[in-house]
Amino acid sequence: MKLLYIAGPFTIAPGPEKNTEYAAAFALAAWRRGWATICPHKNSIRFEEERDIPAAVWYDGYLAILRKCDAVLLIPGWQKSPGAVAEKAEAERCGIRVFEYDAVGIPSPEEAIR
């Protein structure tokens, strides 16, 4: 099974709760298309409240996870998110396929890995 990383806004308006619901809908749709998905939003909800852990720890950790993925899906609004912009850049640096939902929807794993 191929692994798809969901990248999009988390802390920006309307905020983590709504952004997590939003990203989770894309992750679920990707599972239906045949992907296993990594949705950092679901993994980290409420972690942003932990003030003793610098934001860089979360960013670096998710970039490490992203490097294990076969592809990245940029969900609408990703351009407004510094984290998603960094995730896109890291995927491209590592030769990982990047897809914008607004351009292609959710590709099947077979379409994405060609």
Description of the structure:
This protein has helices spanning 16-32, 40-44, 55-66, 82-94, 101-104, 109-113, and strands spanning 3-7, 36-38, 71-74, 97-100. With 114 residues, it is an alpha/beta fold. The chain has one domain (3-113): Hypothetical protein PA1492 (Rossmann fold, 3-Layer(aba) Sandwich). The chain has a 4-stranded parallel sheet with strand order 2-1-3-4, sandwiched between helices. The two termini are 15 Å apart. The model has no long low-confidence stretch (mean pLDDT 93).
Characteristics of this structure?
114 residues; alpha/beta; Rossmann fold; 4-stranded parallel sheet; 6 helices; 4 strands; 49% helix; globular
Helix tally?
Answer: 6
Which architecture per CATH? Answer: 3-Layer(aba) Sandwich
Overall pLDDT metric = 93
Shape: globular
Largest sheet: 4 strands, parallel
Strand percentage: 5-15%
- Rounded to an integer in angstroms, the radius of gyration calculated over CA atoms is 13 Å
Helix content: 40-55%
**CATH topology, anyone?**
Rossmann fold
What would you give as the CATH superfamily?
A: Hypothetical protein PA1492
Strand order of the largest sheet: 2-1-3-4
Distance between the termini: 15 Å
Helix-strand pattern: EHEHHEHEHH
- Total strands: the figure is 4
Q: Give the class-level CATH name.
A: Alpha Beta
Poorly predicted sequence stretches spanning 5 or more consecutive residues: none
